[in-house]
Specification:
single chain; alpha/beta; FAD/NAD(P)-binding domain; 2 domains; 7-stranded mixed β-sheet; 5-stranded parallel β-sheet; 21 strands; globular; FAD/NAD-bd_sf
Length: about 450
Amino acid sequence: MPRGSTSSVAQQQRSVAVIGGGQAGLSMSYCLTEAGIDHVVLERDRPGHEWRERRWDSFCLVTPNWQCRLPGFPYDGDDPHGFMLRDEVVDYLERYAASFDCPLIDGVEVTRLRQEHGGFTVETAEGQIRAGQVVLATGPYQVPLVPRMAERLPEHILQIHSSEYRNPAQLPDGEVLVVGTGQSGCQIAEDLFLAGRTVHLAVGSAPRVARFYRGRDVVDWLDDMGYYRRGIDEFADADAVRLRANHYVTGRDGGRDIDLRAFARDGMRLHGRLSGVTGGRLRFAGDLRHNLDNADAVSEGIKDSIDSYIAARGIDAPTEPRYTPVWQPPDGESELAADRLSAVVWSTGFGRDYRWVQIPVFDGRGYPAHERGVTSCPGLYFLGLPWQYTWGSGRFGGVADDAAYLATKIAEFAASGRSPDVRWIAGTPESTYPADEFLLVPRTVA
């Protein structure tokens, strides 16, 4: 049911329309409310939907609870150095949405956004909204990606994307292959392994990080070192930084490392990158050793930077021995007979789907072209993108700063006299943009 001060989308007129009611959209609404700027928030489902419906049962945050600091609503629990479980995250977001007078309409999907007559038209199944400015806060995880080679697997194998995984009992008895070692892939593989399942894991190039080092959570050290406040403009390879995989680690059971070598020592079957499926056999590249070594090197490099920080400031911190590999993989490629598997979990990420945005603000790869969320189209903004400006931009820890920045830009634009006329225009003609010119379809992994 719709909430807040707004009950219908039919021919509304708003200074700002915020599309998306997750942590980014709610943060934007809070900052606009504080600034006294008229707006509406449109959410396809309800706050917390992504966390509620696209996370497995044992899911927990990988960053400490103290980093949950949405604007005006910092973490208020009794375990700041713990890691909220899935349902606790949902509760946190729902309480946030209820903590201020958010003009939220949920259960409404935006089907098209176009620019016309000096403003924007937001189309939904329930009507149109005219807005002077628009913030796209739909998040980075829009379209689950599964490689085409999935089509070559036998029909008896249950195949699901990581966004559909809930628990080990969901999968049929038998051996399971998890493809991908980002945060989701590693944690799902662990979840299955701890449940006693025979797990095969196709290991990619994602790096890892230690959970604790020299008496503290590594996140605490990195925060003190200013890592999370570094802007994307401080990096020479900004585009590459935005595309980097997240370091794998877990907050499960109070937090610990994810050591794939230890999993292998204890019985998990590790393979290199899945390279093909032919004749009922899955082929894996011979890069397992390289991928494990590289992940370890990244983790040890982070420890080097922490050591340097401690030494430079004369901090009294306990020392500890460095990581020693507990298992070494064989060299070369490997194969696995498909008939051994009962299920495959594709932890192969997500793509973007901005086909409904009929405004040319995307680069050649379909990525939003922006500077700190401000696009080249006056009055159009993005919020909640990974590395929109800092590491925390798409997370609970940094989205507040981005939302506050955009609220300032929105207010400046409105005060400049350039703010578009938001009066409703009856019988508004279709956009003059050729629709197909700007439709960008996320590509699946080849």
